Fold:
Amino acid sequence: MNEITLLQNYLLVGAILFGLGVTGFLVRRNLIVMFLSAEIMLQGISVSLIAWGRFHNDWDGQLMVIFIITVAACEAGIALALVLMLCRHSGSLDVLFWQNSREEGTGPFIDSEIPEESSEQPRWPKLTPAGLEPTNPQEELHRRHV
Amino acid sequence: MTLNCLLLADADFHPTSIRELAESPVVRLIFAVAFLVIGLWWLLPGPQHRSRGGGIVFSFLGIGSIWTLVPLIKTASIQWAFWISAGIAIAASLATITSRKPIYSAIWFAVSLLGVAGLFLLQGAQFLGIATVAVYAGAIVVTLLFVLMLAQPEGYSHYDRISWGNWPRIMVPLFAMLTVGLIAHSLGDVNRSHVQLHDVVREFLRDMEADDRNRFRLDAIRVKNANKVVALTISVSGGSDESRTALKNRKVDLQQEIAKIDRYAPNVIRIHFANSVAARQHVANLGGRLFTLQLVSVQVAGCLLLVALVGAIVIASHPRANERMASSGVAE
Structure:
């Protein structure tokens, strides 16, 4: 029972990781986060492959994951070069800037609400003053005459 | 698994108490999916600035409920190691896709990789566990962080908060978690006779043990059905030479034992003493397979890496981009 139970648990983890990756890819708008979601999907698949390989006592599961890592590395290199190029042209990592490459006939996506930025203002820490007070040249001039 | 068992069309299903309701896997599945969808909708970034605590609670409730659909691993140490690694992987992935600042997403992804590496190590895939950390977390995530530093130095922007609006935020988690729920449901339905087959073979192997040092371990059972000939390949590891020959001599007894199970009446049983996937000298065995059976794939992967490298350099150093960069640099 242990082998099958292990397999079931691992496949469930793989499925959840894949589902989370799909969700992240379709919902987020930042190019980098979309790429990260694709990588999460690949991790889910790798987990499932390892589980099947162990269940059938087949090395092919792990070999395929080695190739998945290789392909992911290539994809990362090219994707990040492309992201850099896109960012240079558009000035931001927003994929909305490139929405004119959408399907013909569908309307554009327009930002309906821009969220308020005020809550994200960083609060800088206040330092207590320490050391000697710096001398004021005007004060010093005044004192010499007295 | 037919769709009938998903719909509560069972005539005998009249729950009289919450306990009976909780025992039905379909009800647990519906609750798990609902919790996950609500949790994800709450956590995913939206225009209103709201706290994420409720979303985290719902997501964990959902993940916990969906885990009641698969059975527990009997060995407590393996179960706990699995839960810790899987918990880290899933929680960190959740944080990756729902962080409002992409730099946090990248760091949470690195944490998720650690969880996945733990899962690999638990399955005996030692090389892949280390390779995941070295290649993914060490190279890919670092490259990603560099790109983020160049492209978005302030760390966040308004589009990170809105994403595509409210409609995808509810529909995408719904469909994704429905799919995950269906997978979990089909995982819960395990073929009873398959489990019985494993149990019978394991019992038989345990009876054959001479002493502690010659312990057999059942690695895998493969059933091949070709031209009405059912062949079982049982992979066993461990055992000394004498016990291995003794096991081979007792194959007929094993065949009779297996024939008692309903579905399996194998014509041929092969007992295979192999280097199991979880063996010692794991990396040597993996390398042996990789560079003999998969040699062509390795060469192709090498060429792919070369092509990707050249392509990335060409894309990133396009003359037009260099002009733009030079002009913007000089103008400032």
About this structure: Confidence is low (pLDDT under 50) at residues 1-9, 328-332 of chain B. Chain B touches chain A through 111 residues (CB under 8 Å).
